[in-house]
Structure prediction request, 1155 residues.
Amino acid sequence: MSFLLIGDHSQSTLDPAGHGAAQIADLFHWMLGGGVLIWLIVVGLAVYSVVVPGGHRPRLTKTLVIGGGAVFPTLVLTSLLCYALAMLPELHRPPPQASLTIDVSGVRWWWRVAYRTGENQRVETANEIRLPVDQPVEFKLTSEDVIHSFWIPALGGKVDMIPGRETRLKLHPNRVGTFRGVCAEYCGTAHAQMAFDVLVMPQADFEQWLRGQQRDVSEPSGPAATAGRALFHRKGCGACHTIRGTDAGGRVGPDLTHFGSRLSLGAAIKPNDADNLRRWISRTHDVKPGVQMPAFEMLNRDELDSIVAYLEQLN
Amino acid sequence: MDASSDAPGDDRLDVKAKRLLDAWRTPTGWRYWSAVNNSEVGLWYVVASFTFFLFGGILALLMRIQLALPDNDFLTADQYNQVFTMHGSVMMFLFAVPILEAISILLLPEMVGARDLPFPRLSAYGFWCFVIGGVFVCGSIFFGVAPEGGWFMYPPMTTEYQTGVGVDIWLLGLSFIEVASIAAAVELIVGVMKCRPPGMQLNLIPLYAWYILVVAVMILFAFPPLIAGDLLMELQRSLDWPFFDASRGGDPLLWQHLFWIFGHPEVYIVFLPSIALIAMIVPTFARTPMVGYGWIVLAAVGTGFLSFGLWVHHMFTTGLPAISIGIFSAASQAVAIPTGIQLFCFIATLLIGRVTKSVCLLFTLGGLATFIIGGLTGVMVAVAPFDYQAHDTYFIVGHLHYVLIGGTIFPIVAGVYYYYPAVTGKQLSEKLGRYAFWLMLVGFNVSFFPMHLSGLLGMPRRVYTYPAELGLGTLNLISTVGAFVLAIGFVVFLFDVLRSKKNQPLVARNLWNAGTLEWLGEVPDKPWGVRSIPIVESRYPLWDQDHFVEDVDAGRFYLPDAEEGLRETLVTSVVDAKPIQCLRVPGPTFLTHFAAIFTGGVFIFSTYHWYVAAAISGVLAFITILVWLWTGTAPIPEKQDKDVGRGLTLPIYVSGSKAVGWWAMFITMLGDMTAFISLIFGYFFYWTAHDDFPPNGSSGPGWIWPSVAMLTILLAYSATLAARRWNRQDHAARFYGAIVCGVVLSIVGGLALLYGPLAHQMDPTAHVYPAIVWVLAIWTALHVVLGVVMHLYCAARRAAGRMTARCDADIVNVTLYWHFLLLTTAITCLVIAGFPMVAK
Prediction:
């Protein structure tokens, strides 16, 4: 079957990179084996009953109904339940007090991400989550509009993000790599294009990255990027986007402070490169239907290039 | 057997048979459409449901084309979202539930040897409502305004972020159809309980009828919570009452609870009737009675009960505490046990019997093999930790289609092959049937099996596209190819059903040599159903009772004649099926069409906020239904009793719990109470889930006005009881006096109910607390208004000589309504006035 499985597996539950996902994949394999066996027996029996013409003893068949229909499933299901429910407490138990805590809120159709870096201190980013390997992490999940569902298949199960509530999810990555998370609850037009990148990295790299995220942006270098910054402000981009260290302080759209360092754009739907960014800014709705950001079709080629140059420098 | 001796021409019938035939004759020409008999309405219902099924199937193919390739642009995001929403909604509301009701309306009376169901006009009304509502909902997609909130319509997406007309079309159009479904459920419950042939005690009922009884009861308790939810959501959308708005105390999860309290039983509502068909087919082809009749009945009832305790497994990922997840996880697995028992009973029957092979059996076995996969994956997703991964992925899409296509569609196709000869007198082709079967089976598995894998590889549901890098392209392409093979299988099947069979000979009567009553039908079929209504002493009377068919045909049993030229059938007692009434059922009419059109107008005009038109339509619907009741129900017969044959004399008019009308009222009110209790559930859900309910500083409606309402309604209720008593004693003056008192007191009570929240200036748009109090008060007040209408109706009936001291069904049934009304009022007053005092 492996020819079917081409692709990068970055979103697969069967290639786990976290404790929860690994446990659940084991559980699945057991259930799969048992299921196949039960199916073969029951369907084999049904086929036999038709192919081999009848007259079997009624006594035998009554044993079959009670044994096969009632006793056997009760035993199997009870054992399954014991095995599976025993996993629940650990899956639900919050991580130790000092663990990394990340606030994620779902917004149509992107993710606002904030790392709690200290008492009342948060550093905000969007559509990309980086995690240290072998550390439990607690996600506090909320929604700013409709119901979304936060899911990183390679790391563990999903939890819904519900307006008016805060839900939580613990994950425990155990393998370095790049994975993909998605919204699992249908949330309207661009539900299919609401994803995020997940980078599990060595502890030291993670800490370095997080320190980087806490910094404000520095002055743009080069004439294109400088012109781009001016244009960014003149066109009103700052009304929706924040770039810390500048006047841009909007909260409606994703924080762009370190946009240039992110792997992808548009909520992980295209690689973050100059061509894609140009298309995103000028033909937004072709890339992602329904998205709230207006398309900036009026920008000429030079203007577009300078804004792109500015944004790509934000790292 | 020679066909001609079984089916004599009209001229060879004796005078009794001719009269009977005349009474039951189907109208011809354009009046054909005024027919209300189960064999016509049932057939139209089946055809209409299948038409919607094809429509839903075409929508599915559109989705498969879009998903065949990654980043495809065959459909836009919005088109795709409309298409998948409509596919789910059409398949569930316009096919799966209606088809079971259609098949049951068509076959149930034949299975229990009744001439018709007790309320033929109600079936016809339900059918026309279904057609109007279905066309309205489906039509929306051609104008690009179809709902796009998914078949589950989760707020706040559907309340605040999808402002188009689509959500209203879904809410109102489908509520309209749900009402029709409940009407059919009432009809089927009363049919199974009261219209069985003499001697058919509870332990002799055909398994199909048992299943339908269970399913109809489930509809009765499952649909009202959804209707209550629809009501709340529509109130939020049109009047801004914040039931699901978290910023004003509402809660989007309340919708999920109400939806899945409906939605999970719904799965079994769809699945059990198909198993019921299998339960009829298996003994016939095994040539032996079903093994474990009692086990099967218990399992069906058990499944029905359990299915109401599973809904939370659709909400495992909403962040519930582990304890609730564990309980619902266990309950969800438990439902596999009764299902297993039923399957093993079928297999055991096949093992004992000497099996005759046929296409019916092929579809039955193919269905079982497919369904078991769906059942096993169902057990997997009932295991909460696995569900955390599988939920809302293509794994679930695979699972649910294995359940629904294996457990529902395949058995229905088997049922069509099985019953086609009974309905049309012609047989379907075994050869084409085999082609269709293998195309469907292979196509289905090729299409849906890979979905389990694409789900586990991380493909979420309800996505209009997916990126190429994820490697899901091959699996999706295979699924699309399979879907088209499956579709070709359906085309072959459809061709076989529709091809002209003019040159094909009529089949022999009871073609499959089955043992149950529906195979008594002559070929070609006669509109009377059975020549005489038999005494039944066995589960398989055609196998076990000597000279059974001859005696039925010779009119040696009950009601072999229609001396008065009226349509009549027997009513028997619930448990032991002793004959208690000769029921006259109404014949063809167009009133039901008008009633359906005007009722449809209320819902359809409301969708577009044309409230004046909706109100006019509502008044017309109301008048039409009153005319229908006035002219069609409980007519006083020309004589009290009638000789129904074999020296048995039965009353023609009965009232109280012997009468089918009383049962219909009782069952309808159970459904009505369920909707009301769902609203009460909402009230307490807000209280348990939110600290600000009731919000600080809100006085609620106070205790004075609700107490006044309670007291006056209690007095009005006493007046109703008195009216019933004085009518029976033939004290005309006292009767009218009691009615007048009842009406006046009711009006005072209704106004008092509304005046409580009004006097305390409760603004229903400010917070969910005043909103839910208003809903409860208005719900109750509207029921009081209906109670007043019923009072006036009884007074008018008596004044017109249509109700007498002896023939008092009208006031007896109205009293029954008032029992429920009193209960509703008491609960409302206690909750809205009493609870705030306790909650402080």
Summary: Chain A has two domains: 9-54+94-214, 223-313. Chain A touches chain B through 95 residues (CB under 8 Å). The radius of gyration of chain A is 26 Å.
